[in-house]
Amino acid sequence: MRCILPPSVTPKQAAIFGTAFLQVIFGIVTLLCNKTIFNNLLKSQLVVKEGTKTFEAWQETPIPVFTKFYFFNMLNADDFENNHGKPILEERGPYTFREVEHKVNLVWHEDGTVSYHRKKFWYFEPSMSVGSLTDTVVTLNLPMVGAVDYARGSFMMEFGLSDMLSTIEATLFINKTIGELLFDGYDDPVLEIGSSFDEEEKTIPMEKFGWFYKRNGTTWADGLLRMHTGQDDIERLGEIVSWNKSNRTEAFRDKCGQVEGSSDGLFAPGLLKSAESFDIWSTDTCRKLTFTREGKQTKHGIDVEKFKLSDNVFDNGSVCKDNLCYENNLPTGVQNVSQCKMKSPAFLSRPHFYLADNFYKEQFQIGIQSHPEQHDSFFLIEPHTSIPLQVQMALQLNVLIEKSEGMEYVFKDLPTVYFPVLWFESSADIPESMAGALLALINIPTIMIVASIIGIIAGLLGMGAVYRCVSRSKSNMVKGEKEEKDVETISKLDKNTGMISYFTKF
Q: For residue 499, what pLDDT is reported?
């Protein structure tokens, strides 16, 4: 500082000037590098590793997730079975559950990936439901349909199964409670035969049937996942590496069988600012689901990008050629997942066959009516951090009913129907209280710019004040020295002249 300040500056003034000077330098550096600083801050906290906020949120979801189940009640079961009349359906729901998910059995790998299982818990929410879990619906007898599908083409199996179904007077449609159909499960004599057909099927609990039987509080349903943590390469954050120790699934051929996409909805910061689409790996469908950019919206005062489930995600290949390897040899809008997990004639679609071919709606007399806002799936994502503020996923499970010529009982002349059993909507919405923290996070660059400018101005003012103070002190010092010289001159003259001596004494 000696080259800037005069030699007469005090240590206190030098300290103040130096602090102000450093403040100016710091402000300029921060102003020029605020984006780099912000990006490094994001990367340090968005990496999935113990101690980061992202790890805490990933290991256990901090925001409430609700899953609403809707069932299709069959109103003319006898007419369909005996006279092949078009089904008449009635929607029942929602029956709402609060979902809590934990990541367990974590294994950290040296290549910057982590393996884990998902452990899920569902808690029924009566206040958000239309009734209780003891409500009943008339629904498809899936164990029966699944056994017939398995036996199809084998004369001996079809003959024996037909005789058994006739003996127990099995019906195509059954009356069960919501609780039984979801998590509790129910006994069915067909299950004993179904489980004996193939020992491999025992990897899935078969002693009772329920769509989510033995999934509550267990880890087997979603399998073993492995994903990138972002520690070695932040651009690969959340990217799935393998599922059940393989990078392929046998449910689909060629590239449709590749395991790819985001494992848990995690994305690299800034990745979606310019991306037109992204993929999510779905363990329930054994395939990736593509979401495409829809446009900008505002959520809790935060600018977000909306990505919705692609219109062509369940295309049969007539429009989207990349879907040909899914082998959906049926009218567009429905995905064949019969080889995914349960090895049953299961097909996936949007609720009420939204965006599917009219063929599906025309299978029914009444009960199929799509509503885009309610039946669509989407993400609302803050583009700088890639943090989702709202997620809605809505899908429908359908079961194929068709004739089996080798079955004399019930199935000999049945019409072909893709029967909707249930649809669900899973949603997560960040509360406004948490949105405030996110808003502060994404405003950090603006805060840094303002703070830098204020710091630079304050530093310059401080430097100017010190310089002015030092300059004024120097001026006063020079003036004082001049006056002392004048007094000395007068004193010397005073010895020689009485006149000057008179004025001096006066």
A: 47
